[in-house]
Amino acid sequence: MMVSRSRRSVLALGLALLLGGCLDDGGPKDLTEQDFEKAALTVKGNLTYRERIALPKGAQAEVLLTDATLDKPLAMDRVAVDGQVPIPFQLSMRAEDILKGHQYALSAHIQLADGTLVFHSKEDRLIDPFGLEIVTLRLYRTEP
């Protein structure tokens, strides 16, 4: 059976596209150990508190991510607070700092421009640094 040159080219192109689709499903690629160590991880979330009060100008929120197993800080975000909650935050860290079998925790507080602490987290919130969910961290009023 004779197949014309143009038809053979079309068949070859179709076969290449078909095989290419089998090789790459568009999903996540396997990272080499070096790629993993270079990668950055990001934890995103919001701070909130129950009281219905706006914070004065100059207030700042500080969020800290620690390796709870080693009690070692990994990342911190300072956010200027513009009024009301929720207060978004974003922490970035090196993937190489995330160790298998360790626990990771978030804590936060809000202070006024003069340094007065007004809200704080009562306990550290354990998180999965590889998780994709947005973390909500509830803060509590600091008693004078």
Automatic annotation (TrEMBL):
Q: What InterPro entries does the database record attribute to this sequence? A: Lipoprotein_YbaY-like, Pilotin
Keywords attached to this Swiss-Prot or TrEMBL record, sorted alphabetically, are:
Lipoprotein
Q: One Pfam family, short name please?
A: YscW
Q: Which residues form a coiled coil?
A: none
Q: Which domain of life is it from?
A: Bacteria
Q: What is this protein called?
A: Lipoprotein-related protein
Q: Which organism is it from?
A: Gallaecimonas xiamenensis 3-C-1
